[in-house]
Every structure is written in C-alpha cells, then in structure tokens.
Write a structure and sequence with these properties.
273 residues, Elongation Factor Tu (Ef-tu), domain 3, Rossmann fold, globular, binds FE2/S2 (inorganic) cluster
C-alpha cells in the first residue's frame, strides 16, 4: 500500500504524484519503474517509470498521462488516498558511465522517464544535450527541470507554438552532424523512437530506447511485454526497459500495442458516459 503525498497537474491530462514508498525510494536506480494498481479489485496494473525519488523522505515520484479508464481513475485520486499495490523497483537500471557527450531525446510524456536518466548521465560527468518535443506548448512537461540539467537544450513543438517547429529528429540529425555524440537515449511514442533510431543509425551512434509495452505481472512470467530485439524475444519488464534501439523491431511492437484497442475504446467510452 502506498499513500499519495502530493499531486500536481503538470499539463493537459498529465499528472505528477509523490507516493510514500520508502523501500522503493531506497533501492531504485535511473531507468527503473514500478507497476501499480490503484484498486486491486477493479483496475488493471500499469507500468510507470520512477521519475524521481527521495530516499530520506521515503518517497517516489510518478508522472502519468490520462489515456484510458485506469489512468483516469488514478488521476481522480488525491493527496492522502492510498494506492493498493505498488511493485518495484522493476527492470534493469540504465547503464550509466562517462561516455563523453550524450544526447537525450524525449517526446511527450516520455520526458518523465528521461529526466532521471539525463540527471544520472550529467552526474557521471557527461556533456548532456537534451531535445524535448511535444505536439503543442501546453503538452510540454518538466521543461525547467530538463533545462537545469542540460548543457544544451532544444525544444520542438509540432505546431510551432513554442521553440522550434520541428520533429525532434531534425535537431537530432543536426547534432549527429555537428557534435557527433557518443550515445543517444530516446524515450517517447514508439514511432518517435523508431525514427530517432533511424536518424542515428547512419552515424553509428549507440542509441538506447526505453520501451513502454503492455505489462501484467512485471516479473517475466506472463509474456505480455515481449518484444523482438535483434531477432530474439525479450521481456521488457525483466530484460529492459532499455534496449539497443537499432535492434528493436518497432513495427511489431506497435502492432502488438494495438491488440486491445477495441476493448480500450469501449472502456474509454464507458468512463466518459
Ligand atoms: Fe509479464 Fe513482462 S509483464 S512478462
């Protein structure tokens, strides 16, 4: 059980919650996640990256976007309420070392899991270039936090309402040309990660993508999170969530993510009635 210590409305449909979870706060490393279930009788389990943690306070921070019934139910909870199950920390931590120059690319809600990784890369002595993108200015999250970490910071919006009117792949390509970064970390919608991987591939820049698949148990038992990486089947929950983006079969992953679309639409329709 985990009590909600605070709740902030970050942007349209995006919420940040601080949860009481002393054991997870003590153990977690950048790149790891939790699976939570707000109410064990009525809601599904959802994986969420640990965006931040405070071991002294015994708290972790999660950031989520309302995309369906489960996340809507979570968004309706408030400070003082109790989330029934919080399991973690799960997954492999990000491999952090002083690579030299690291370019971190985050799209939409993907900026939340990118934040602790960018911070850890900076703490390890890397020069950190950050590119964040959103459809529009109102959907941009954690700008100040990411700006504070980065040696160079670029914002893109699809509609040009803030920063550059570009997809994140455009400045990424420019940086590949000019700065020749040693490593890229990309987190966001699968199609964004796919095209970021295609952008860095010709330059031979090692690129990691953090995958957010459907998950059930989070312990490698159910197979719900399986992806193909370098022609091998991997489980995102135990082998990931980060993989070599140049080896990930993003097309199959995107296809699998649509498996429950009809059920999700029905559920969304019911919760908006
Ligand atoms: Fe079940 Fe990964 S969530 S195997």
């Amino acid at each position: 059980m985990s009590r909600i210590l605070s709740k902030i409305h970050l942007s349209k449909d995006v919420f940040q919650m601080k949860l009481q979870a002393p054991n997870i706060a003590r153990e977690r490393k950048a790149g790891q996640f939790v699976i939570l279930q707000a109410d064990s009788d009525y809601t599904e389990r959802i994986p969420l990256t640990i965006a931040d943690a405070d071991a002294e306070e015994g708290s972790i921070t999660i950031i989520f976007q309302v995309v369906g019934k489960t996340t809507l139910n979570l968004a309706l909870m408030n400070e003082g309420d109790v989330i029934e199950n919080v399991l973690g920390p799960l997954g492999q931590p990000t491999h952090i070392e002083n690579f030299g120059t690291v370019v971190c690319v985050g799209g939409g809600i993907g900026v939340a899991p990118l934040h602790p990784i960018a911070q850890a890369m900076k703490d390890a002595g890397n020069r950190v270039i950050t590119i964040v993108g959103a459809r529009t200015k109102e959907l941009l999250i954690l700008e100040d936090e990411m700006r504070a970490i980065a040696d160079e910071f670029i914002v893109c919006t699809d509609d040009g309402s803030y920063g550059r009117k570009d997809l994140v792949t455009k400045p990424l390509q420019e940086i590949c040309e000019s700065e020749k970064p040693d490593v890229a970390v990309v987190i966001g919608p699968p199609v964004m990660m796919k095209f970021c991987a295609e952008t860095t591939r010709p330059y031979g820049i090692k690129t990691y993508a953090s995958l957010n698949t459907i998950m059930v148990d989070g312990t490698g038992m159910c197979g719900g999170c399986r992806v193909t990486v370098g022609n091998e089947t991997k489980f995102v929950c135990v082998d990931g969530p980060e993989f070599d983006a140049h080896l990930v079969d993003f097309d199959t992953m995107m296809l699998r993510l649509t498996s429950f679309k009809t059920i999700e639409q029905k559920s969304n329709h019911e919760c908006h009635l």
